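Support request, please re-run this one:
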Amino acid sequence: MSAQTRTGVPEGGGEETADGVTDAVQDGAGDSPASPAKGPGVAGGGAGATVGARIAGLMSGPFGRSLGLVIGLLVLCLIGVITAGDRFADFDNMMTILRLASVIGVISVGMTFVITGGGIDLSVGAIVALATVWATTVSTQTMAADIHWTVMVTTALAVGAGCGLVNGVLIAYGRMAPFIVTLAMLAGARGLAEVISGKKTQVIADRGLKDFFGGRVLGIPVLVIIFALVAAGGWVLLNRTAFGRRTLAVGGNPEAARLAGINVKRHTAMLYVLLGLACGVAAVMLMARTSAGTSTHGGFYELDAIAAVVIGGTLLSGGRGTIVGTVFGVLIFTTLTNVFTLNNLDSSTQAVAKGLIIVAAVLLQQRVAARNSTP
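Re-run finished. Output below.
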């Protein structure tokens, strides 16, 4: 039995494209002796059309979306240089932008998985606040002083993962809407953080945690390195593992994924646990940056994370996600905030600008989806 490709073309008959069609089929097997001779003008026109079609397909895919984000980021940087001069272009300011982007960036990576899987989470900011408070209570810090400062890290990670588990179980097995469940978690986690802390700031006494996470490696802040590692791990998980493929399948069509043998409920719950764990990591980073735990941490983090994910190109309806796009989305919003701050623009103007960018991104997604669905 001769080996064949999925399209029925023998192996070696042409390189398979992204659409599952070989180059030999696209060219109509024009090298066959029975094919009529082509004039040079026709052949040249056909080759030009093929190249043009490939370029158009490339620009409409992930590469084109990433290129657009890179251009947008470069335009923001150019505006920053023009309006703020050396204050923006300074190396320390660049590190400040990356350090500020790292916390929300880690959350956004986790949010990418949840949205790609067809869900949403409005409670990430409150989970971060609860994790910082629980990890900096007197009892936790006393235990950390007796054992090691990693006790606070473990506590924050456990609180984040636990909150994510509650969200995931209620959504997947309780058949409740993600919007309702995470909205309830937003209120509950924030309220619990206020009860535990008494609405007071809990200062971290142990220098070990602050020295480790607040340090630098080769001039690069440790927080930025953590963000880079989380983003790289998220990219591998989404694009190179069965977990990532299942996430895309569940977000694209849950019923089809179930029929294909995927445990949709369990996978959905795991996505929220993953996001909760990301919130725990972000809580540790925030504790190191502020040297405190408080119920006011994480304000509007859910909006910033969702905005970065949507700007990056992940579909709100699920089924398509991009970690690279999310990273660029985070950098765009953080750079925008930095430019506004250097030019003494108030937070209200920043909020309006972010809102307009989000609306523009969603409208662009709808336009692209409508164009792709048109035969």
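Strands lie at 202-203, 216-217, 220-221, 292-293. The CA atoms of residues 134 and 156 lie 7 Å apart.
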